[in-house]
Design goal:
This protein is an alpha+beta fold and 386 residues long. It folds into three domains: 2-107, 2-Layer Sandwich (Dodecin subunit-like); 112-295, 3-Layer(aba) Sandwich (Rossmann fold), CATH 3.40.50.10610; 300-385, Thrombin, subunit H, CATH 2.40.10. Helix content is 22%, strand content 37%. It contains six helices and 19 strands. Strands 5, 6, 7, 8, 9, 10 and 11 form a seven-stranded mixed β-sheet that branches. The chain has a six-stranded antiparallel beta barrel with strand order 12-13-18-17-14-19. The chain has a four-stranded antiparallel β-sheet with strand order 1-3-4-2. Strand 17 (347-359) and strand 18 (364-368) form a beta hairpin. The protein is flat.
């Protein structure tokens, strides 16, 4: 069974090499649905093949011979899949294992920042209409969805190094609703500085409403089916200058298998295996993919922790993908105030560049390429690779 998948190559001038990759994926058969399990296993196998080839995955833009449903998987800029063949599908007990063979053209480079993982801080979400959470007692969902999003990012993201700050609520929603842009910038910069992060993610749960779906009139003895909405908006801010770099709203719905009087434990496996929980996980996976797409080529900025002569210590290390020999430009922070009293973050680009000579897990040491002294570079100035 052969599948043709199309996508846009951002920079077609880069040289490409076509290779075949074979991979296996597996999935658990739930509720005797072999079709859904085979589809999931096929997706897992294709993801593995793409990652090995140096490509990355988000969602497919078309239905593929009944195996993959629309908008479930997509190949983005770093690789082109010419074709996919299903080699075999083996069912054993409640599991299915699918083997695929993919003809993949992988690009040599997408962008320099894609070499590194960006430190991303996830903050506690806010339920905008708390009365909607009363049905099912979902008041803890704002914390759990972020915790779950963190798991998705840790398991599947290639470009985000995630950290959590979900014990306390921030003032983001208050500032966002009041259009207090300067306060939003200050909040983003403050949180990024305090947690040593490059980017900060805020979010709001906009809709948890319940809809009654009326059954066939001839089946009046049946109770009405309940469907529940889920809408969430995420915002990603640059922790260096407080600027908004990504914003998107997500909305979906699924069958609500509980009664209106049930109290639901959002931390239980039962909830996340329900149709509604499965829909939430699918939404969170889409969010994770969009995060990767949008931070992949953003500048990788690190802070300077120490300056000695022509040598600096930065807060990026092997965990973020830094390697010996990597080169960085230097930015001297130069904030300024406009006529309205608003503070803006500015930078002076140093004429010096540095090369990494030593790397640990979270830090790296670099020296100037021409051995010149770093006269105006200070602690908390930045290194950047565009």
């Amino acid at each position: 069974m052969k599948v043709i998948l199309f996508f846009l190559i951002l920079i077609p001038s880069w040289p490409a090499v076509s290779q075949w990759f074979e991979a296996q994926g597996s999935a658990v058969i739930r509720n005797s649905d072999k079709y859904a399990a085979k589809s999931q296993a096929t997706q897992n196998a294709l993801k593995k093949a793409l990652l090995v080839a140096g490509a990355s995955v988000s969602s497919i833009q078309q239905v593929v011979n009944g195996l993959l449903t629309q908008n479930e998987l997509n190949i983005r800029a770093s690789g082109n899949v010419r074709s996919v063949e299903i080699v075999d599908a083996i069912y054993r007990g409640n599991n299915v294992r699918v083997t695929i063979r993919a003809d993949i053209i992988s690009q040599q480079k997408q962008c320099f920042p894609a070499d590194y993982r960006k430190r991303l801080l996830l903050t506690k979400s806010r339920i905008q209409h708390r009365e909607q959470a009363n049905i099912g007692n979902l008041y803890a969902l704002n914390k759990k969805v972020i915790d779950r999003l963190s798991d998705h990012i840790k398991q599947n993201s290639r470009f985000a190094d995630v950290h959590l700050a979900i014990k306390n609520q921030t003032n983001f929603s208050l500032f966002n609703q009041g259009l207090f842009n300067s306060q939003l910038k200050d909040l983003s910069i403050s949180l990024a500085n305090f947690t040593d992060s490059q980017y900060v993610l805020f979010s709001e749960i906009n809709d948890l409403s319940l809809d009654d779906v009326v059954q066939n009139n001839w089946q009046f003895w049946q109770s009405d089916k309940l469907e529940r909405n889920f809408a969430m908006t995420i915002y990603i801010y640059n922790g260096t200058n407080g600027e908004l770099v990504f914003e998107k709203n997500y909305h979906d719905f699924a069958n609500w298998s509980y009664t209106k009087r049930s109290k639901v434990d959002v931390n239980s496996a039962t909830f996340w295996h329900s149709e509604y929980g499965t829909m939430l996980d699918k939404t969170l996976n889409n969010i994770m993919t969009d995060i990767d797409d949008n931070i992949m080529c953003l500048p990788t900025r690190g802070k300077i922790l120490k300056v000695t002569g022509n040598t600096i210590l930065i807060n990026l290390g092997s965990h973020q993908g830094v390697k010996i020999g990597d080169e960085f430009s230097l930015l001297h922070v130069n904030n300024f105030i406009n006529n309205n009293g608003q503070i803006y973050v500015g930078f002076n680009v140093s004429t010096s560049k540095v090369k990494i000579t030593q790397v640990s897990q979270q830090t790296a040491r670099a020296v100037t390429i021409d051995n010149s002294l770093l006269g105006n570079i200070q602690i908390n100035d930045l290194v950047v690779r565009y």
